[in-house]
Design goal:
Blueprint (H helix, E strand, L loop, with lengths): L3 E2 L20 E7 L6 E8 L1 H7 L1 H8 L8 E4 L4 H11 L4 E2 L5 H13 L3 H11 L9 H10 L5 H18 L3 H10 L6 H13 L30 E4 L4 H4 L11 E6 L4 E5 L5 E5 L1 E2 L4 E2 L1 E3 L3
Parallel strand pairs: 2-4
Antiparallel strand pairs: 1-5, 2-3, 6-7, 6-12, 7-8, 8-9, 10-11
Helix pairs in contact: 1-2, 3-4, 4-5, 5-7, 6-7, 6-9, 7-9
């Protein structure tokens, strides 16, 4: 899944190229708060009029009644990378989110809120749900999203829903859900686990992508022409030895994809090699279905 924010006006990014000949007129110094002294993390430059066009906060800061007259402005309570991404978004640069952690993305979310940039907030909502989730990272991601729920409810709700959809595939029975809840007890992430289980409860039931059923029909026979839907995966039924040979013969173990019905007795299939051929879907001599679902 591509995790790139595409700039909608690439020409605008030329303004950040010093060789283009349009000098910046404001410098932001990103300051890291320290107990004893402050540390400057780096600088980001820009053009006041461009920044003001994208953010009413920048507009008021540079052109409002209480405008700042300084050209060097300190910025605290953020990171250099987050502020760079904010400015890159304004200047319509492509932003690659691969390798950016959930916490780092929330830093950009915070800036989108601070500078009142609703389009950037929507983009962050779109991008944050693309964060790769694994069994090992699920609870960390959900815990972070839960922690930011009060500040950024829309973004956090979207991310938690993504986590819940992932979890739903892993804990499909009540016993599995109970086991998941018990496994999270005492780990400090109980609130996130509870949120996920509530969301899982309210999600539509999962259906198998191949057979289309809540209870997967893998290995069950395809009965009737209506079940031979284009794209459906099948394997031969070993119960139909009169047609395929003993235990499926040399057809056993192969996967066939439904192409279309040929008539009321035969079906066109695509073999693994790409060859299109046809077979009976019910062997007339014994009235036994010749194919079964191959969902795994």
């Amino acid at each position: 899944m591509e995790r790139i924010t595409k700039g909608k006006c690439p020409q605008l990014s030329l303004l950040q190229d010093p060789s283009y000949g349009v000098p910046s007129d404001v410098t932001f110094q990103i300051i890291k708060d320290g107990e004893e002294n402050e540390e400057m993390l780096g600088e980001v430059t820009g053009h006041k009029v461009v920044l003001a066009a994208y953010s009413t906060v920048f507009r008021d800061q540079f052109f409002g009644p209480l405008r700042q007259t300084k050209d060097i402005i300190p910025v605290e309570q953020t990171t250099l990378d987050a502020f760079k991404k904010l400015v890159d978004y304004i200047y319509s640069k492509d932003i690659d989110w691969d390798g950016v952690t959930v916490k780092e993305m929330y830093e950009v979310v915070d800036l989108a809120e601070k500078y009142r940039m609703p389009r950037l907030m929507e983009e962050m909502k779109t991008q944050i749900v693309k964060v790769p989730i694994t069994v090992d990272s699920l609870m960390e991601v959900a815990h972070i999203a839960t922690g930011f729920s009060a500040l950024f409810p829309d973004v956090s709700s979207a991310l938690l829903l993504t986590c819940a959809k992932f979890l739903q595939k892993k804990v499909q029975t009540q016993d599995q859900q109970l086991q998941f809840a018990v496994s999270q007890s005492g780990g400090g992430q109980e609130a996130a686990a509870l949120k996920l289980l509530v969301l899982v409860r309210d999600l539509p039931p999962l259906v198998c992508a191949n057979c289309g059923k809540e209870t997967c029909l893998d290995g069950q026979p395809l009965v009737g022409s209506a079940e031979f839907v284009g794209g459906r995966k099948m394997r031969v039924s070993r119960n139909c030895s009169d047609y395929w040979g003993v235990d499926g013969g040399h057809f056993a173990g192969k996967v066939y994809t439904v192409d279309s019905l040929k008539n009321n007795k035969e079906v066109w299939v695509i073999e693994e090699c790409g060859k299109r051929t046809n077979y009976y879907f019910v062997w007339t001599a014994t009235n036994i279905p010749t194919f079964c679902y191959n969902c795994c």
